[in-house]
Give the backbone structure.
Amino acid sequence: MSGVRPDITAIRPYGDTLDDGRIQMSFTLPMEASEQAREAARQIALGMGLDDVTVVHMRDLGEGFSFHVLYARVTVSVDASRIVVAKVTTPVLGFDEVNEYIAARYTRPVRVVGACTGSDAHTVGLDAIMNMKGYAGEYGLERYSGFQTWNLGAQVPNEDLIARAMEVDADAILVSQVVTQKEVHVRNLTNLVELLEADEARDRFVLVVGGPRVSHELALELGFDAGFGSGTLPPEVASYLAQTCVIRGTAATRADGDGGA
Amino acid sequence: MSGVRPDITAIRPYGDTLDDGRIQMSFTLPMEASEQAREAARQIALGMGLDDVTVVHMRDLGEGFSFHVLYARVTVSVDASRIVVAKVTTPVLGFDEVNEYIAARYTRPVRVVGACTGSDAHTVGLDAIMNMKGYAGEYGLERYSGFQTWNLGAQVPNEDLIARAMEVDADAILVSQVVTQKEVHVRNLTNLVELLEADEARDRFVLVVGGPRVSHELALELGFDAGFGSGTLPPEVASYLAQTCVIRGTAATRADGDGGA
Amino acid sequence: MNGIDERLRVDRSMVAACRDHARAVADGVYRMISGKTTVSVERTICRLLGIDGVDERGVPLPNVVSDYLQSESLVGDGAWYTLARITAATGCAPIDSARRIAAGQLDATRFAHIDAGHARELLDPHLVDGIARIDDARAAREELKAQYPHRSQPWLYVIVATGNIYEDTVQAKAAVAQGADIVAVIRSTAQSLLDYIPYGPTTEGFGGTYATQENFRIMRKALNESIRETGRYAQLVNYASGLCMSEIAVTGAFEGLDMMLNDSMYGILFRDINMERTFIDQHFSRMINAYADIIINTGEDNYLTTADAVDEAHTVIASQFINEAMAKRAGLPSRLMGLGHAFEIDPDREDGFLLELAHAELVRRIFPDAPIKYMPPTRHMTGNIFKGHLMNAMFNLASVLTDQSIQLLGMLTEAVHTPFIQDRALAIENARYVFTTARHLSREIRFTPDGVVQRRADQVLEETHRMLADVASTGLPAAIEAGRFAAIGRPVSGGKGASGVCETGERYLNPFADEFARRLDERREGDR
Amino acid sequence: MNGIDERLRVDRSMVAACRDHARAVADGVYRMISGKTTVSVERTICRLLGIDGVDERGVPLPNVVSDYLQSESLVGDGAWYTLARITAATGCAPIDSARRIAAGQLDATRFAHIDAGHARELLDPHLVDGIARIDDARAAREELKAQYPHRSQPWLYVIVATGNIYEDTVQAKAAVAQGADIVAVIRSTAQSLLDYIPYGPTTEGFGGTYATQENFRIMRKALNESIRETGRYAQLVNYASGLCMSEIAVTGAFEGLDMMLNDSMYGILFRDINMERTFIDQHFSRMINAYADIIINTGEDNYLTTADAVDEAHTVIASQFINEAMAKRAGLPSRLMGLGHAFEIDPDREDGFLLELAHAELVRRIFPDAPIKYMPPTRHMTGNIFKGHLMNAMFNLASVLTDQSIQLLGMLTEAVHTPFIQDRALAIENARYVFTTARHLSREIRFTPDGVVQRRADQVLEETHRMLADVASTGLPAAIEAGRFAAIGRPVSGGKGASGVCETGERYLNPFADEFARRLDERREGDR
Ligand code: B12
Ligand code: B12
Ligand SMILES: Cc1ncc(COP(=O)(O)O)c(C=O)c1O
Ligand SMILES: Cc1ncc(COP(=O)(O)O)c(C=O)c1O
């Protein structure tokens, strides 16, 4: 008897009636406000395959620009039953569990080196994951007995980061990228993987990236082992590292391995 | 030396760089918030031919819905040099000019009957155009010596409106439509034209429609002579009526015509 | 309030004078309607006596009875007396009588007349049953409230309006999950002028969903689920307004609604309903609301959609005084008087927010015990959803700053369409943000003694007083005729539904009214 | 202010005690830097002496000179003395000397030494010219301001940051057309650590546009067009911050800028620049700002992007006292001290807005004559642009309610990207709406004597006092080392640019500093 029972194989936007396809849009055009500009805005929407397009607000911004707010109907649908999103699959453990897990399986604490690389100076996110204090009431890696951490801070060149990871015989490298203008993060991250590969050191480390515009999917694409986005909590990262380093057999799990500092 | 010189034949949305194509969107999907839902939102945008799609905000709305805010890049462009928008072309005259214009060319004041038709009870817009007081500091038609007006008010059946227009031998009929849900205004307006045509009376009147979602283009499409949208001022309508009734040779301009009340 | 220093000075003696004038106004109205009833009051009595359902042609049985009364010129005897007369003659319970009338199997005019005492007695068991249904619904609500308390005021009030009651429930539940305290199901546009209540669940409506008893039940059930899921009480609202004021009031009372839109003048002004019809219907509907412990929402906010919010601010307050006086007459205590006003000043006016504060604070101070209902900006909303969202934030701030009670949330798409699910979610988010970050701001602030706010409040109160004095001297009908409210004039004897008004005859009885009045008196005693 | 009753009580004696401690802190800093100069101060002197342009490899000529001084160990003699010495020997004007140095055609160490008086005199015409350029730029601004006055405060301050100076001008002009009063051109990320000023117009930058003299000129010209078009004065801002503080200050002074970001500790804390370097550079940069009548913007807002806005509120005010004390030392009058703070409390915190009001009001009361710069929410902004827009509205309200001066507008897309043209337009619309509708709210309100706002203000002032007492006793370097500001610790002798600090020798001269000081003194006398 329910009014709304969406068809998962044909998901459409919803305004107030199932499958009405309603969306809101806004953008600027490099034309001063006029009926022509309004029509151009409408045609942009039509060009996106929308119908029932209404420009509900147009405003002149000066210097030959106009701003438009539109409502329209999407005509495409998505088969959500076929969406597979790459996800970090290791279960999230508690603080003590992670420490016990590591104590039981590793020859020494897991060594983690982290940095904000390139020109990125946004350290708050990485600090949230790595530092004692942690984030949203959850301790950071530094506080875990299972981890030994080096947080190199802001604007660290990829070369320095790798050198340091080698030096301390790290198990994992954590990279934070917050600035994404002109895809600078993609360039930075790709460069890091290339440098590691050139050194034939890619397999030595579990390689993790985080930041508000990072997804696990993007991370895999760029050759990382995992990616963590907005709102990540330290235990998620701790659990992932604890369990992944075992699987990957990094230094800390190898009987012979106790190099580094 | 200017940074921005848009190509009028290929207009694209503008964020902060010419032709970057940036737009903002938001919509609800009938899926609870999850990575799947986020990906579905992204795919909807891809389905619209957008690229560089980022879901910058996702929020669960309860009951199996999630809300998404996206930024993306439009790949289509519009040739604005070829946009022709239908416009009311009669020049806008001042209050006195309109009255003088009518006094000089008509045998009696122009008779105007107006109504909010169908189930529409939004009289404010029509009153703004027709009543003494007017709108935004401009007098309404009632105040002009050149017009004689009948404002029938809210929820007037099309039949009654036509009957009244016949009865007073009106020159023009003004219709207001504010409620547009489920295209009810289109139905109402089409029905009015059909009724007039059935009575073979369509040509007797200058037929005008107004309302916040009305455009001149829509009005023409539906068989009206003119349409007036949001923010219309009374002199625009007065000028249009004064000049159009002459051209159309309605009752007030015909030497023989002085029927009605 | 709450022992907090007064933020604003209000001339108490002028307020008292306003109340006196409003009482005189109400007295005049009650003189006008005494000795009269309406078809919808009679249908309400039918419903209270257990008459429900539809006939073969889909006509609701209460209408079958009232039509019959009209066609046989029995309205003056009233439904109770006539049904009792039939019972006396046939032994039929009211519902059976109604069915027989529907089937054309009954000619009541042929039955013997009975005396008033007998008529009263004969249907007494049905009266007891009818009132018990209201008591039960009320008790069920009380129990839920005890278990899942209300959130603190201002309460977040949202509307749903899909036309489909099932789609409405989904949206209502989502809204409660997001934090709404109150859900109103907007009625289909045309319904206020229907002289009957549609029957059964409905899935098509226009700009809203029909108010039917079954729809009420479906939505109440859905909200009760939400209450258990969220642990917060959620209130349900509908409209006891239009040509079926009192009938819908009793339907809502049966189904456990919490609030009803209900105004003593709205129908006259905004729906061109006949004055007498409205005044009679509103009285009985309010007795029912009072007895069922349902908060009414008055409609003064509507004035400011057609009249200027600054020039006409005093008409809002004058009307609130009148609504209050009339509501008292029907036995409504202050705590059930959701007097309405609105935030409708032009956003581009310098210091407009100061004036809004003056108005809101004044209403709050004049009616300290009433759950004031504050309506959002609508008139100056445009397709600029971003600015609209900000106007709603300032509205929310005005509310929390002046201790309003019921906050009808503004939608950023007000000028575009009836609310989408995300519009409502954004509105709730807006209110929750402002109410949280400025939670106790009202305790922090005093208005400077001769500032704009204080002077504006003084001025509006004076204008209100002057207007009420005028209205008291001319009488309310003449004032309405002159367009004193909402700048809309209505002739005294015009308007829709006039033919449904009838003088009551000698035999006329309305024991429900008597019983409600008696019990409300008792309750008031108990309160002391 | 303006004869309005005080909204908030502030313990004046505690404020005076804070000022005393801050003065002691500044004294300590000035003891530390006395007898020292830096390469960038010397380059600034070069610029004031008319040295501009680049050499064949694109190195700015002021850097050619300072590099030469360093390589020949002449920094202790300073640029003025060395250039005068060259003039004495060769007759070359400073610009020619610089060109010859660039060409490797000159060995100053071989020239005879001259006495101080002679050195002073020889370049005096260049001093007169250099200062005249500043005077002219200032006079041109004054003339424009007289003709096209400022709008009332709070002023609307927006940023442009496209990287391309020409695209920036389009956006800046659009912003002014929409109502912006102030436009800041954000610098490319990397620039603060460049030990030179790039040369010429630039069209590529990263997250901002390079600060160059030509870019300043282009933007000033664009804004002057806007001023004539709109009839309102529009102010131009850039950054006298980083390794080239004083050099950029003089560049801005030449090109008629109105404001400069300039803080006595920002470089140390946020860019890990050496302490001595920063303290020396900020002093000379501020003398220039003062002389050119340029408002500085301090950077305390940054503290709250890494530290909690409630826990660390007092560090902001303590830092403002220190910035004030240091600025006074450089001759800046209060009316040029754009002390910074920010609206950064968690939006989901109950009564967070009350605390913001307490902080903003306190800053306003403590520095009544300073053009306080108020920074918008950034830290708690998310991809939810709708909520973000509301947070910016509450920020705007806090500003107009507490009489702030310079309002840096928040962008609804703060967490998403650097501003799009429409983001800026919406931000301006937001501020204009709130500032208009609540224009005189600040005059209407008093905070209740023992309310949350008053108690919070008292508490923060006490904490500030305690902190300043501590810092005065340990000295500022030790306090910074201990991470007392922004929760960031920096070692006294570490940081970038340390090698650019040098002891001044016996022959060292900075007649510009002397002349600025003299004229500022005169101006102060004149003011009385
Ligand atoms: C604080 C801040 C600053 C501070 C940084 C202080 C510091 N020490 O970090 C200061 C003021 C110095 C600053 C400067 C600049 N900033 Co800034 N800044 C911000 C701000 C307001 C908040 C960022 C933040 O701290 N978020 C809180 C943390 C906890 O969230 P997070 O970073 O997402 O981290 C979480 C997850 O992403 C994840 N995560 C993050 N990293 C990692 C790493 C790993 C390994 C893992 C597992 C997880 C993980 O876990 C964290 C916890 O959940 C944002 C706007 C905003 N509200 O987002 C702009 C913002 C990021 N800044 C921006 C810019 C452009 C700049 C400047 C370049 C501006 C300029 N031209 O001057 C400068 C230069 C900075 C530089 N060189 O990088 C832009 C970036 C635009 C873009 N998308 O490219 C933003 C979005 C603002 C804007 N709209 O313009 N900024
Ligand atoms: C005021 C108002 C009311 C008042 C109407 C009072 C009255 N006597 O008119 C009341 C409270 C009664 C009301 C009721 C309802 N309303 Co109403 N109402 C509005 C509101 C707030 C403002 C409309 C207005 O007065 N605008 C001001 C005038 C001056 O502008 P205008 O109409 O655009 O007119 C200008 C031009 O369009 C043009 N123009 C207009 N008509 C004509 C005619 C001619 C010939 C010409 C030349 C020009 C012209 O010139 C005018 C001057 O520039 C809008 C929301 C909004 N902010 O827009 C909702 C709105 C129009 N209402 C709406 C609805 C759904 C209703 C109800 C159905 C709700 C319900 N279920 O109960 C009811 C029933 C009304 C009905 N049967 O039609 C919706 C319509 C949605 C849609 N697009 O379909 C809106 C958009 C609100 C919403 N978001 O839900 N409403
Ligand atoms: C008291 C009252 N009744 C009813 C309504 C609704 O109008 P309608 O008559 O369309 O049901 C309103 C308007 O909001 C109102 O205020
Ligand atoms: C005083 C001051 N200088 C400079 C900046 C800008 O930083 P950057 O060092 O990247 O130029 C800021 C930050 O907003 C600041 O407050």
Summary: The interface with chain D takes residues 26-28, 59, 61-63, 65, 67, 119, 121, 123-124, 179-182, 184, 212, 230 of chain A (CB under 8 Å). The beta strands of chain A are 22-29, 51-62, 65-73, 110-116, 147-151, 172-176, 206-210, 226-228.
